[in-house]
């Protein structure tokens, strides 16, 4: 394989990877531009195995989207709706509790909860849904509210982000998911999500969370109008932030799904691009412990192959995924533990059911 990498003109990057030396932005761009997927994958797999051996993680989780009403109405999103839309919905605190109650017989360890930027729900609503979940399921880990929502909640609370996070944590918040990062580039934000919190703002919220010991994830929405340079700028900003505050757990590249969005004329991402994003991220984000291939977006088959191209996590059981399915995802809405374990074993990896903070619940 090393010969293949050298023939692909990536021998210098191979040397850096072997020496555990950081690759540069130029190296990252070369990896993206390389037509030799196997060479890029080999480099990523080397980093993956150094950091995570043969481990491949998944989680037993439940997704709850408390409301799709949103004032940002990003062009790439099929989930967010104006309040006046007949497709708009909003769960009451009791509805959220019922969702949790319905699945109390399952060994769910994490609830992943996000929603739109709602124009008029009060701050108390967010506190009440966190407390309501913990009332019904006290031991569950709540990973909720993207950095974009947290900034909005701080506005509602009339307090700095730091103080707002402390209030949310007291109510039951345990960690923050990686959504809302999109592509940090101001050009992309201007063209696709001009009302959304800026990239700098997103990173600032994540770093404030890290400084108080709260773990967060990071994403990048790829495969629309962003350039390779903009992808690398995004990864570079994440890597720099992680050097400073160290609280990111996982990076998840999110493949753009165009259906029912204002960008529906664009095509879905290709398999090559899906694997490249995993592989380049694994090589570039040397300070991120985990790279997740989110099976809901890329499909279980691609997530399985991604385990040899840098990924060490496939997310989890999920169930009732709305955001990607409204944008045309054709994947199932849920996977069982048995399916996840089979998928991972077939890839030659060791399936590990994890908690949110990558604590081992069971090895299969
Ligand atoms: O914030 C919106 C993105 C995100 C589309 O942290 C779209 O572990 C593709 O962040 N096509 C929500 N993507 C999902 C998310 C996530 C998922 C799984 C695990 C984790 C984690 C985070 O999805 C949004 C936005 O960035 N998104 N519309 C679309 N049409």
From TrEMBL:
Protein task: Radical SAM enzyme that catalyzes the addition of the adenosyl radical to the double bond of 3-[(1-carboxyvinyl)oxy]benzoate, leading to aminodeoxyfutalosine (AFL), a key intermediate in the formation of menaquinone (MK, vitamin K2) from chorismate.
GO terms of molecular function: 4 iron, 4 sulfur cluster binding; 7,8-didemethyl-8-hydroxy-5-deazariboflavin synthase activity; aminodeoxyfutalosine synthase activity; iron ion binding
Residues that coordinate or bind [4Fe-4S] cluster: 70, 74, 77
UniProt lineage: Bacteria, Pseudomonadati, Thermodesulfobacteriota, Desulfobulbia, Desulfobulbales
Chain positions recorded as S-adenosyl-L-methionine binding sites: 76, 182
Reaction catalyzed: 3-[(1-carboxyvinyl)-oxy]benzoate + S-adenosyl-L-methionine + H2O = 6-amino-6-deoxyfutalosine + hydrogencarbonate + L-methionine + H(+)
Protein name: Aminodeoxyfutalosine synthase
A Pfam family annotated for this UniProt entry: CofH_C
UniProt-listed PROSITE patterns: RADICAL_SAM
Cofactor dependence: [4Fe-4S] cluster
Family that this chain belongs to: Belongs to the radical SAM superfamily. MqnE family.
GO BP field: menaquinone biosynthetic process
Superkingdom in the source lineage: Bacteria
Pathway involvement of the protein, from the record: Quinol/quinone metabolism; menaquinone biosynthesis
Underlying gene: mqnE
Enzyme class, first EC level, given as a word: transferase
Keywords recorded for this protein, A-Z: 4Fe-4S, Iron, Iron-sulfur, Menaquinone biosynthesis, Metal-binding, S-adenosyl-L-methionine, Transferase
Protein EC: 2.5.1.120
InterPro entries, per database record: Aldolase_TIM, CofH/MnqC-like_C, Elp3/MiaA/NifB-like_rSAM, F420, FO_synthase_su2, MqnE, rSAM, rSAM_sf
Free-text comment on the cofactor: Binds 1 [4Fe-4S] cluster. The cluster is coordinated with 3 cysteines and an exchangeable S-adenosyl-L-methionine.
